[in-house]
Design a protein that fits this description.
7 strands, Rossmann fold, alpha/beta
């Protein structure tokens, strides 16, 4: 229970990687607020957290709205009195070539993935300062290190998260607040199910496409898991002298 006594939030905690992070933090004793635009999903994950024996709370949240980001941190302060670990995991994806992409779709991806990270961090900083320090952990992507066809808008948003993370880490370095990003690789979530469907060959089943993507992309030849991401979040929550980094969790796919 390495995080006993700590308080965390996970924005985008209702599904996939966010859910895995919330459960990993709870297993180490952290109290967790689960926020997600899908209120029912946030509530379900909060119940899973509570079943692990730690206090939890769920709330609906649209990370693109400054008022929601403020409400998130106000709720944490009212219920728990402090914030130690801020995890910004909300994200969306689609597959479109640039010449076919609408301005609205570009804005949707950038607003959730990049602006949402900015707003959540901006709201969390004063509360972390009042706590006396803490951790900000942003979920980026290997697409924030390398671009892929059909993902120009998504890659742009995740490159933005990495640059923002590095800059913010330098701003907060003397305040005992570390800021890091995790760049997940090939993880079986709804996002990769979408990619497997979009990239499947003619007459190829979705499951066959998924297996082919794993073998084609990952040097280790196996996918990563949400549990892997949760373990790395716990490590970063404990690390005092690691900041400003974008850590690849991708089975050797990305080398920079």
């Amino acid at each position: 229970m390495k995080l006993r006594g700590k308080v965390s939030y996970v924005a985008g905690g209702g599904h996939g990687i966010g859910r895995g992070i919330a459960l990993a933090l709870a297993r180490e004793g952290s109290r967790v607020l689960v926020a997600d635009i899908d209120a029912a999903a946030a509530h379900a994950v909060s119940e899973e957290v509570a079943a692990l024996g730690v206090e939890s709370h769920a709330m609906p949240m649209d990370v693109t709205r400054w008022g929601d980001a403020q409400r998130l941190c106000r709720t944490i302060e009212e219920r728990f009195g402090r914030l130690d670990i801020a995890v910004n995991s909300a994200g969306v994806i689609s597959v479109q070539r640039v010449e076919d992409m609408s301005e609205a779709e570009w804005d949707r991806i950038m607003n959730v993935n990049a602006k949402g990270t900015f707003l959540c961090c901006k709201a969390a900083i004063p509360l972390l300062q009042r706590t006396g320090g803490g951790r900000i952990i942003n979920i980026a992507s290997i697409s924030g290190k390398d671009g892929y066809p059909g993902l120009a808008h998504y890659s742009a948003s995740k490159f933005a998260v990495i640059g923002f993370t590095n800059s913010l880490a330098k701003e907060l370095a003397r305040q005992e607040i570390t800021v890091n990003a995790i760049c997940p690789g090939v993880i079986r979530t709804s996002m990769w199910d979408l990619l497997a469907e979009e990239w499947r060959s003619k007459d190829e089943a979705a499951e066959e496409s998924w297996q082919r993507q794993v073998l084609a992309f990952v040097p280790q030849g196996r996918p990563q898991t949400v549990e892997d991401v949760g373990d790395l979040v716990v490590y970063l929550a404990l690390a005092r002298n690691l900041t400003g980094q974008a850590i690849n969790l991708d089975g050797g796919l990305t080398s920079h």
